Amino acid sequence: MSFWYQSNLLAKALKWLLSPFALLFLLITRLRAWLYQRGILASYKAPVPVVIVGNLSVGGNGKTPVVIWLVQQLQQRGIQVGVISRGYGSKAKSYPRLVASHDDPVETGDEPLLIAKRTNAPVCISPNRQQAIEHLLAHFPCQVIISDDGLQHYKLQRDKEIVVLDAQRQFGNGFVLPAGPLREPICRLKSVDWVINNGAETSFSQTVMTLTPQVAIHLQTGEKRPLKDFAQQKITAIAGIGNPQRFFTMLQKLAINVVESQAFQDHQAYDLALFEKFNKNQPLFMTEKDAVKCQHFAQPNWWYVPVEAEINDEQSEQFIAALIQQVKTASKSTAL
């Protein structure tokens, strides 16, 4: 909700009006976490290390690029990685469901399909994360499982936790739902293994991630063109992600002349009718997450702009090294 990130009188009034409900939400979530941590409620321990990539706030913070980056880093070091996801928005006929790069995003959800396409790692979706892990391990020799989201899913035990933070929006007004955007209070950061800031350094950051675009890719043909080739053209841009303005701002910083833009809901279900109002005589840019849902009705002037997560610092090297050591230790224990 927009008032979470505003400081006008109306936003402040709404925050305090909803604060009793936020307090109730906080008490329930803290009690639930405590019950799992004390073993009063049963939780699942996977036979291989599990890494959660999540966030404290609702909305897009850049988790998916981090998941892709982490999978690729481990693959480059010879580690067999599997990915699980709740599969938000998916309409699969049954769960758990393995995701293939040629699947229909309606069946799989957009983010799991994007991860599968970019990494070629086995991906499984299910609202039941234990079932997803067991299904993956029954079909693939995974040495480590990366969970896309699930920081607050304490029913699943985890070995490492990564929190991704949008440096621009951060924690909004600092209140938990519904008075603010937080699923858990800010102090939760003290217990996670790694905090990654998307876009810039803040007082909470341990590592800064930069999302770097290089090319635009044609949805129909797969042709790649440097973004600078579009510098003299008028562009339409659409984005159905957690923070659409981040995509539009990124294009503008690259000297792309965005003359028309449209923000859609995160996980937006697209059809061709939604695009009828846009100028068909100028290129239309979208995110890679949008492109996986628009591929089958793509038009000749449609392009998507993939981004690569750049995470290069001592903290990232230490995290990867510690995780690989944990994976190797777990593999030896399993072998015995």
Automatic annotation (TrEMBL):
InterPro entries: LpxK, P-loop_NTPase. Pfam families: LpxK (PF02606). ATP binds at residues 57-64. GO terms for biological process: lipid A biosynthetic process; lipopolysaccharide core region biosynthetic process. The keyword Transferase applies. It is an enzyme of class 2 (transferase). Belongs to the LpxK family. The lineage of its organism: Bacteria, Pseudomonadati, Pseudomonadota, Gammaproteobacteria, Pasteurellales. Transfers the gamma-phosphate of ATP to the 4'-position of a tetraacyldisaccharide 1-phosphate intermediate (termed DS-1-P) to form tetraacyldisaccharide 1,4'-bis-phosphate (lipid IVA). It catalyses: a lipid A disaccharide + ATP = a lipid IVA + ADP + H(+). Its EC number is 2.7.1.130. GO terms for cellular component: plasma membrane. GO terms for molecular function: ATP binding; lipid-A 4'-kinase activity. This is Tetraacyldisaccharide 4'-kinase. Pathway: Glycolipid biosynthesis; lipid IV(A) biosynthesis; lipid IV(A) from (3R)-3-hydroxytetradecanoyl-[acyl-carrier-protein] and UDP-N-acetyl-alpha-D-glucosamine: step 6/6. Keywords: ATP-binding, Kinase, Lipid A biosynthesis, Lipid biosynthesis, Lipid metabolism, Nucleotide-binding, Transferase.
